[in-house]
Design a protein that fits this description.
The complex is a heterotrimer of chains A (about 100), B (about 625) and C (about 525).
Chain A: H1 3-23, H2 27-52, H3 56-86
Helix pairs in contact in A: 1-2, 2-3
Chain B: H1 6-23, H2 31-55, E1 63-73, E2 76-84, H3 86-109, H4 116-135, H5 139-157, H6 164-195, H7 200-206, H8 212-229, H9 238-241, H10 247-256, H11 261-268, H12 270-273, H13 277-300, H14 304-324, H15 330-357, H16 370-373, H17 375-389, H18 395-410, H19 412-437, H20 454-477, H21 480-488, H22 502-521, H23 536-542, H24 547-592, H25 600-623
Antiparallel strand pairs in B: 1-2
Helix pairs in contact in B: 1-2, 1-4, 2-3, 2-4, 3-4, 3-10, 3-15, 3-20, 4-5, 5-6, 5-10, 6-8, 8-11, 8-13, 10-15, 11-14, 13-14, 13-19, 13-23, 14-15, 14-18, 14-19, 15-17, 15-18, 15-20, 15-21, 17-19, 17-20, 18-19, 18-20, 19-22
Chain C: H1 6-23, H2 29-53, E1 63-71, E2 76-82, H3 84-103, H4 107-111, H5 116-135, H6 139-148, H7 150-160, H8 165-196, H9 204-207, H10 214-231, H11 240-247, H12 250-275, H13 277-303, H14 308-328, H15 332-363, H16 374-377, H17 379-392, H18 399-414, H19 416-423, H20 425-441, H21 457-475, H22 478-494
Antiparallel strand pairs in C: 1-2
The chains are: A mainly alpha (about 100), B mainly alpha (about 625), C mainly alpha (about 525).
Chain lengths: ~100, ~625, ~525
């Protein structure tokens, strides 16, 4: 199979993720969408690695995974805290940090 | 260090002043003794030093002492060098001698003042600064003494600080003196640029090779300095207000010593003034204007101290006129400076004694008939009076006569002015004399005139003796002219008329003045306790001939407006423009912050749009 | 010379003592204060030792030198060393710190809020940076300290200052930061030039005598000068100083005006002139005019002030005009005078500000109109106030006279007219000081002035070393000048300036005799 297909899939996943972030209001779902985007990027990196015949992209993908895992830990903790104090996970309700 | 070390001379009063100021109240009990002893000790050193000079041959009458190197930078070097020569020798005797008498007098005069110790500390400080002024062997060290006496004068004029008028007068004196000091600083700087040195020997030795206009500028700058310190026109107005200080201060600083520093400066710099006719003429004009102005002011004042202050201005005008005459006049200026130091100190102290007996009232319209209740004061004041108006054989007769003669030798106008001044002097001094000691008693209620204690009358008697004999003594016994010849190189000129006419002429003018005063203020005349309005001339003289009005209109008023303008400019233009920049950014921030809505998804949308734009740009650029 | 890194010790000690002061038990404020004071005496001892070991006529420019590579890629060094000028300035800084600690002993209590340990710790931190900025012989390191000084001062003004302290601190900070950033740009430009010349270093010695075209030199000069002009401050970029002086505690203001502002004039002397001699010469007329305007403008505006602290701030602006003129007139008299002026102004303004601070803490007001007749209730205070004031107006016998005269005389050698106009500043100086003295100290005792009590022993102890220094250096400035003069001679040589000779050839070689 041509690597282009993988790239196309990656682009599709990224767009899906971005649409999810933009459209959905629930923090958990937004979070999952962000993960989707990250993994789309990972897919692209691995593909590129394959295309160039080097390991750089794969190494980078591992980095991204580790960072994503850490981010999930912190992010979920924040979301849980918000849910506990406000009884809602809607992201539009948490808009206090503004002018 | 030998007994007649110049450093010792300055050091004794300086250390005494430091001790009194540092110990503070702890030295209240004995402060006046220490101060007086220091002054007398300094007088002893001065006598020893001058005796030593006398014992030397004429060519080497000089004691030099370099105490330390003050500072050296590049090719500029100033030493703290003190030197006693014929001229400064005369001055140190006057300063410490009259100074000691006034210290003694002050023990009595200030006995009821809670700050008497501080007063003596300041007096000692003054003596030290004045000695430094006359002993300095370079112009920069002289400048230290010059401002030092200014400081002492400031402290003593404002001694009664609780009076607003006193502190105002003190400030006025200091600031007007600073205007003069500007001249001295300018002269010093010009000297260094020209000669590479500010020491007397170097400057005087090479002044001949300097360009003429440089010499003239130096001379004019020195004249400005002299005008400030010696209360000469146009910087004269501080002296009358300086009478706010305690009377011994007026006697010592504002009559006998400090105010004559300007005369000393010009006489000391005779090598410079000899080379510039313009400079000498300027000094002469200033002296002549001031001698007439001071005399006219003296006519109108009812305050005994201010009348005497006008007289001081006028007498210093005589000295300035004399030094402005050049080599024919220097010696007579110094001569008159000495005799004036005696008789004016005598009269100021006498006035102080009168005030002491009159509950510190200074208004002569409240005096009258005091000759009986204050016999000693009256007697000593009378001698001073005869001395100042120039009655032979009293001191002023000899010195003033010589100045009038020298003035006629140089210029008829200057001579005529000096002669006229002598007449006015006779008039206003007779007025003071008659209003105070003769006529009917016009005492305020509750005033019981009494003679002062011995500690005050003894200095008066000593000064009266000096006023009586100093003229003849200095001229014919000590031969001041010969003593000063190596430094001042006196010459004689030609009178434009027969010399035999001068003496009778002068005496006649003086007699006219006395007689006119007798008719106006003599015993038969009733003197109103309230001053009459007087004619325009008297009113102008009472207002110091517009000196203060001039300062107010030309300097203070515009100065205040300029200050107010600049303060407004600083706040409303400079600072406001800086704050305006800050406010602009604050405003912009206010506008832009409304973009921060707090909705995470709108931020995300912006990001996506941004990514698309960046991607599109990257793609398009790649294509082109 | 010993190899012990004395300058690093001098730098590190106050910083470490600040840390110790911060972790000390909070309960006992008196112990904290005593510790801070005790720590601040150690640098004084070190500088006294260094002064005794300093060889004014040594061949190398910087002594007690240390040099370690810091950032290799950029040619940045941790390089310290002092010449006579830096030594004098460091001495001034470390002497003033214990003085302000004693004088500010009860500042926090009087204010009613704030942490005592923090207040004194900031002073000690500031001391480290002040020493560093004068001792740095790497331009990058100089810049780092130059900017770092802002932090402790920001907190000292903002957290411990008056009601509008936060505003004044922000104004001071942003003003200084703008200058600092312009300087950073010039600094980078300088590095680029040095790289092109194949050196690629920030070390001061490497940057001297760089070849660059005149326009670049002018631009770089302006970059540095802008920072120093704001710091000094010169008119018209002075407006932060009156606000800062009004809002900060007097102890802070002493360090701010006494030392920090001197970094500006020190920088002109150390960096602007030797690094860019041609540009400096090209800009000299402009700078002299700026200085002259500062002298007259500062003095006149000072006369019109109603708040004593603002008044003193404006007098300082006037004095900085003198210093700037002295630096740029390019005669050894002018530059030595300017250096001495920096030291003397530090002492005399410190004395004046601390006394004003004592007055304010007693009366609760800084307005001149709220005083009057203080001499009656507190004669020692009034007397010392007069002495400090007389020093500010450069009365002969006070050290400030020597330096002011040197600056004026040095200026007269090159530009008589400028010198004469500057000399008229002495009349204005007499006016602003004596008018303030008269309104606050003399006359009948004003309403509410009865509460002004006499100075206590601690307050007198804080002032007396300053007054002693003013008097001693007035009559005997030799110790300072001996150290400063050779350093100035080197600066003169670096900028290729020579002192003019007397117009009339005087045979006698020993001038002054």
């Amino acid at each position: 199979m041509s690597p282009a297909h993988y790239l196309a899939l990656s682009a599709l996943l990224l767009c899906l993720g971005a649409a999810g972030v933009l459209i959905r209001r629930n923090a958990i779902v937004m979070f999952m969408s962000v993960e989707l985007m990250l993994n789309a990027a990972n897919l692209a990196l691995v593909t590129a690695s394959r295309m160039h015949g080097t390991l750089d992209g794969q190494v980078f993908a591992f980095f991204a995974m580790v960072v994503a895992a850490a981010e999930v830990v912190v992010g979920l903790a924040i979301i849980v805290q918000i849910f506990r104090s406000r009884r809602t996970a809607s992201i539009d309700d948490a808009s206090l940090l503004k002018y | 260090m030998s007994l007649f070390s110049p450093a010792l001379l300055v050091g004794i009063p300086l250390v005494s002043a430091a001790v009194l100021l540092l110990l503070g109240k702890r030295s209240n009990a004995w402060g006046h003794f220490l101060g007086t002893t220091a002054s007398i000790a300094s007088f002893g050193v001065a006598v020893a030093a001058v005796m030593h000079l006398v014992s030397q041959p004429v060519g080497s009458r000089e004691i030099n002492q370099t105490v330390w190197n003050w500072f050296t930078v590049g090719n500029f070097s100033v030493d703290v060098t003190l030197s006693i020569d014929a001229l400064s020798g005369v001055f140190i005797l006057l300063i410490t001698g009259v100074g000691s008498l006034i210290h003694i007098y002050s023990i009595g005069y200030m006995s009821h003042d809670e700050n008497r110790r501080k007063f003596f500390a300041y007096l000692n400080l003054f003596i030290a600064a004045m000695l430094l002024l006359v002993l300095a062997n370079n112009f920069l060290l002289l400048y230290v003494g010059w401002e030092g006496v200014g400081l002492a004068s400031f402290l003593l004029i404002g001694f009664w600080q609780h009076k607003n008028s006193a502190s105002t007068a003190a400030n006025k004196a200091f600031i007007l003196n600073r205007v003069g000091d500007f001249g001295l600083a300018a002269a010093v700087m010009l000297m260094f640029v020209t000669f590479g040195s500010v020491s007397f020997p170097t400057v005087f030795a090479h002044v001949g090779s300097a360009p003429g206009h440089t010499t003239t500028w130096i001379a004019l700058a020195l004249l400005l300095a002299a005008c400030g310190k010696s209360a000469q026109f146009p910087l004269q107005s501080w002296l009358l207000d300086a009478m706010e200080g305690p009377t011994p201060v007026s006697a010592l600083i504002h009559a006998a010593t400090m105010v004559t520093a300007g005369v000393y400066l010009v006489a000391r710099s005779n090598a410079i003034f000899d080379l510039t006719q313009t400079g000498r003429t300027a000094v002469m004009i200033v002296g002549t204007i001031t001698l007439l102005m001071g005399a006219v002011i003296g006519i109108a004042k009812d305050d005994i101290k201010k009348a005497l202050a006008g007289s001081t201005m006028s007498q210093i005008g005589y000295m300035m006129l004399a030094v402005g005459l050049g080599p024919v006049g220097y010696v007579w200026a110094i001569f008159h400076l000495l005799t004036h130091g005696f008789f004016k100190a005598n009269m100021f102290l006498g006035a102080g004694s009168v005030m002491h007996g009159m509950n510190d009232d200074v208004n002569m319209r409240h005096y009258g008939a005091l000759r009986k209740s204050m016999a000693i004061t009256f007697g000593t004041f009378l001698i001073g009076y005869l001395a100042i108006i120039g009655v032979p054989p009293f001191a002023g007769f000899f010195s003033k006569d010589e100045i009038i003669k020298a003035a006629f030798e140089q210029s008829v106008w200057a001579g005529a002015a000096a002669l006229l001044g002598a007449g006015i002097t006779a008039y206003y001094m007779s007025r003071v004399m008659f209003m105070t000691f003769f006529g009917k008693a016009r005492w305020q209620s509750g005033v019981h005139p009494h003679e002062s204690p011995a500690v005050m009358t003894i200095p008066l008697i000593v000064l009266a003796l000096l006023s009586a004999v100093a003229g003849y003594g200095l001229l014919h016994v000590i031969n001041l002219e010969e003593w000063l010849t190596p430094l001042l190189h006196p010459t004689t000129g030609e009178l434009p008329f027969n010399e035999a006419l001068l003496l009778p002429g002068t005496l006649a003018v003086v007699a006219v003045g006395v007689v006119l005063a007798w008719f106006a203020y003599g015993s038969t005349h009733e003197i109103p306790v309230q001053a009459p309005r007087g004619n325009a001339f008297i009113r102008a003289a009472r207002a110091d001939l517009g000196g203060d009005a001039f300062n107010q209109e030309v300097v203070i008023g515009p100065g205040e407006r300029l200050t107010a303008t600049l303060v407004a400019v600083d706040e409303k233009v400079l600072d406001a423009s800086v704050m305006g920049i800050a406010d602009t950014f604050t405003g912009l921030g206010g506008r832009f912050r409304s973009l921060q809505t707090g909705f995470t998804r709108s931020y995300a949308l912006v990001m996506v749009v941004g990514v698309i734009i960046v991607g599109a740009v990257a793609f398009l650029v790649r294509l082109s | 010379m010993s190899t012990f890194p004395w300058l690093t010790a001098l730098l590190a000690f106050p910083l470490m003592s600040a840390a110790v002061v911060m972790v000390m038990p909070k309960g006992n404020a008196a112990t904290v204060k005593r510790a801070a004071f005790g720590f601040s005496l150690v640098p004084v001892a070190i500088i006294a030792y260094l002064w005794s070991q300093f060889d004014a006529n040594a061949t190398e420019q910087f002594q007690f030198a240390e040099n370690t590579e810091w950032i290799r890629g950029w040619g940045v060094h941790y390089a310290l060393g002092v010449d006579g000028i830096a030594l004098a300035m460091i001495a001034l800084s470390v002497i003033l710190v214990p003085v302000v600690i004693i004088a500010g002993w009860n500042d926090v209590e009087n204010r009613g809020s704030g942490n005592v340990a923090e207040y004194f710790a900031w002073f000690l931190v500031l001391e480290t940076f002040m020493v560093g900025v004068f001792a740095a012989t790497d331009v990058f390191l100089f810049y780092v300290f130059f900017e770092a000084m802002l932090v402790p001062v920001y907190f000292l003004i903002g957290r411990f200052g008056g009601p509008r302290g936060a505003f004044a601190a922000m104004k001071f900070f942003i003003y200084s930061l703008v200058g600092g950033l312009i300087m950073l740009a010039a600094l980078i430009g300088l590095y680029v030039i040095s790289s092109r010349n194949g050196i690629g270093s920030f070390a001061y010695a490497d940057l001297l005598g760089l070849k660059m075209d005149p326009n670049t030199q002018k631009l770089l000069f302006l970059g540095f000068f802008a920072a120093f002009a704001i710091k000094a401050p010169l008119v018209p970029v002075h407006t932060w100083l009156p606000d800062a002086a009004q809002q900060a505690t007097p102890a802070t203001t002493v360090l701010l005006v006494g030392v920090l502002d001197k970094v500006g004039t020190f920088g002109m002397l150390r960096l602007c002139l030797p690094l860019f001699p041609e540009a400096a010469r090209w800009f000299t007329p402009t700078v002299l005019i700026l200085g002259l305007v500062g002298i007259i403008y500062g003095a006149i505006v000072a006369i019109g002030q109603t708040d004593m602290r603002r008044l003193i701030a404006f007098t300082s602006i006037s004095h900085f005009g003198f210093i700037t003129i002295g630096v740029f007139v390019m005669t050894s008299l002018g530059q030595s005078g300017a250096t001495l002026y920096m030291v003397n102004h530090g002492f005399s303004t410190a004395a004046l500000l601390l006394l004003v601070g004592y007055l304010i803490s007693r009366r609760g007001s800084a307005r001149i109109a709220d005083f009057g007749g203080v001499h009656k209730v507190a004669p020692v205070l009034a007397g010392l106030f007069l002495v400090a004031g007389l020093s500010s107006l450069a009365l002969p016998g006070m050290s400030s006279f020597v330096s002011e005269f040197m600056v004026l005389q040095g200026t007269f050698l090159q530009h008589p007219v400028i010198a004469l106009i500057a000399t008229s500043g002495v009349v204005l100086a007499a006016t602003y000081i004596l008018v303030m003295y008269k309104r606050t100290m003399t006359g009948p005792v004003g309403q509410g002035v009865e509460v002004v009590t006499e100075l206590n022993r601690r307050e007198i102890w804080a002032i007396s070393p300053l007054v002693a220094a003013l008097l001693v250096f007035g009559f005997f400035p030799k110790p300072v000048l001996d150290v400063v003069n050779p350093a100035i001679a080197r600066v003169m040589q670096q900028i290729g300036a020579v002192d003019p000779q007397p117009r009339v050839a005087v045979v006698d070689t020993k001038a002054g005799q």
